[in-house]
Amino acid sequence: MPSRSNGLAAEMEAVRTLALVGASASGKTSLAEALLHEAGAIGARGSVERGTTVSDHDPIEKRMQHSLNATLMHMAHGGTRIHLIDTPGGADFLGQSLPALEAVETAAIVINAAAGIEPMALRMMDYAASRHLARLVVVNRIDDPAADLAGLLAQIQDTFGRECLPLNLPASGGTRVIDCFFNREGESDIGAVDAAHRALVEQVVEVDAAFVERYLNDGDVDAAELHAPLEQALREGHLIPVCFVSARSGAGAAEMLDIIVKLLPDPSEANPPDFLLGEGEDARPMHAKPDPSMHVLAHVFKVTSDPYVGKLGIMRVHQGTVASDSQLYIGDGRKPFKVGHLFMLQGKDHVEVPRAVPGDIVAVAKVEELQFDDVLHDAAEDSHVHLAPLAFPVPVHGLAVEPKRHGDEQRAWEILGKLAAEDPCLRIEHVAATNETVLYGLGELHLRTVLERLREVYRFEVQTRPPRIAYRETVTAPAEGHHRHKKQTGGAGQFGEVFLRVEPLSRGDGFQFADEVRGGAIPGQFIPAVEKGVREVLSCGAIAGYPVVDVRVVVYDGKHHSVDSKDIAFATAGRKAFMAAIREARPVVLEPIVQIEIVAPEHAVGDLTSDLSSRRGLVTGTSALGAGAAAVRGQVPMAELASYQSRLNAMTSGQGRYTIALSHYEAVPPNVQQVLMGQYRGREDDQ
Ligand SMILES: Nc1nc2c(ncn2[C@@H]2O[C@H](COP(=O)(O)OP(=O)(O)OP(=O)(O)O)[C@@H](O)[C@H]2O)c(=O)[nH]1
Ligand SMILES: [Mg+2]
Fold first, then answer.
1. Is residue 266 within 6 Å of ligand 1 at its C-beta?
2. Domains detected in the chain
3. How many helices and strands, by DSSP H and E, does the chain display?
4. What is the pLDDT of residues 416-466, one digit of tens each?
5. pTM metric for this prediction
């Protein structure tokens, strides 16, 4: 009789994990539906248009007819359990699609046969390669008469390499597919099956000299014997198989299930994920072992919380077996939690399961401490294990938000904080310089869906506007300032007099304060008060109301009075002397300049560069990225990027994306400075 652990090992070998990734509208959600239907997991096949798919179950997804979240599904085929993750194809939702790659052995890059290779397919291919995943190219929509399948296959090989070889081919006008791995007979819509079979077998045997020899001697090797070299080729990226399917007609869906079960790696056949043991610079690489009898290592790659269902943590088990009575620790936390009910998800539905082996993707409910990217374990030595971080795009698209109802600020902060904790590409920040709460995301669409969720799920209304620009003030020449503060009111008076000078510092040097008062003209005990007064100006500004930076202040003389001098008098004198000095020191307003990188179709490059110049920008380089895409890099003032995404959409038919990162601060042109100073005087006058 097999021991319990052998039984679990067999259970693990019968698990496959697959993430559907690739461009928006390539048909991932429809394909998930076709696969679930083919495997018998659902009765009728739903459609994206009618809002009846298992995957797009969120009301906002249904309305938009696009996926916005990574959705988990599972099905059984040929005694094997398949975990399928459908991801959104929109570049605004990389915070959902990228973590899915941490939970699977195989990334299936779905390509819309009528649209060709789109930028998201390139991006996902790169991400999957960087995580050492097995990759499968799925050409969807073979029913579409507009599709040139032979041309597309050639383009796939040009773009992703000659190791992209079909496992099956479209036939009978795209109404079915013919296998070309196990089978070598027949004629497809795009060429003879035999030729495709040979190309595939030759590629696979290349990873093992013994097989090369057999192939050369016998002219073929039985595909049934090629399992080990096939898995090796997938692990090493020596083979990127291609399969054809129509999610709409279902042609190729059964064959795709067979491919998943028979050819794609089980958890023990894939490259182990890159874990790190230790913190910071001392962290060293560590591999989890896909062994159900070892201690547990599981990674939380998604959390969701909503007011109705509560919190759900979704984890991929990498090592050991998690059962409902398991006690698991979260990272370096000291108190374990009891797993309780374990669920496999089918879209919005839950199915309770008794345990999860390596490869399984399961959810636990109502564990409030669980956070995105946590590692769960049951052994003390694993308390400092992390998954190697993913290179998430930095959210730079900002929107200032304010609750419609006064007094709701704290609640807004809490709910937005919760949403940001679920999405690694969403950030919420209180910007002290402008006193605003700013939500940063990957694009307008991203933020719009967050605000819709806020409104529909949390019933919370906010007003939004473009964030204020974080201008700064500084000086460009040395100058002197003086102020005598004298107040005589009935009893004790106030007296303090300060002479100081300001000097410009290099950009980024901040603020320096020096005391060069000789002979006790200002007694030492009052110097901190002078500095305090000076520092008040630092945050409020002297000419346009923005923080003052990169300036050195030297207090060198003053006067005091033995009775009337006090801290408040010197603070006032210091503040006013500093303001006076700044106004004499050729002050300027500085603005943030960002590095921008725009990725867009090549034909738009001319428009993009001239548009950047018209925004006071500087183009520093352009380069071709392959597959008709190009990158434009440059520098541009942040203030010129308000609603840039819509302009970019117009110039690139919605294909363009941009990222920005703060580069440095630079003086604004004199006309802009006049405007900013005018607005400040306006505000001052109002008060
Ligand atoms: N003709 C045809 N249409 C398809 C096929 N697969 C999907 N579609 C249609 O293409 C559109 C987009 O399909 P989805 O399944 O939502 O695409 P997706 O990749 O999930 O898109 P995102 O969720 O935005 O990433 C829908 O209108 C589908 O009905 C197919 O095989 N053939
Ligand atoms: Mg979808």
1. no
2. 4-193+239-262 (3.40.50.300), 274-387 (2.40.30.10), 397-465 (3.30.70.870), 473-585 (3.30.230.10), 590-671 (3.30.70.240)
3. 17, 37
4. 998 999 999 999 988 766 778 999 998 888 999 999 999 988 888 999 988
5. 0.81
